[in-house]
Design goal:
The protein is mainly alpha-helical. The chain has helices at residues 3-21, 33-38, 49-75, and strands at residues 26-27, 46-47. Helices cover 68% and strands 5% of the residues. A two-stranded antiparallel sheet has the order 1-2. The two termini are 12 Å apart.
């Protein structure tokens, strides 16, 4: 895998993994009795972007490495 191809693979994987990581980095408010009756939860209380970016970076690196190994294996 060429460095340019690896970079763009990582970049695409990072954005996809960011959307996978955001739900794991989100904090919601406690459900009150009124919200439980209405059955509606509003926007999250906080999204921890730094944690989401770290998770996305690690997962994208793993995906890029796996794709690189698969390409190397099938090229020979």
């Amino acid at each position: 895998m060429t460095p340019v191809f690896a970079f763009f693979t990582f970049l695409n994987a990072w954005w996809i993994m960011l959307f996978v990581a955001i739900p794991f980095s989100t904090e919601y408010e406690e459900i009150t009795e009124k919200q439980a009756i209405e059955g509606y939860r509003a926007a999250p209380k906080a999204i921890y972007w730094k944690r989401a970016a770290i998770i996305a970076t690690i997962m994208a690196a793993l995906v890029t490495i796996i794709i690189s190994l698969v390409i190397r294996e099938f090229r020979n």
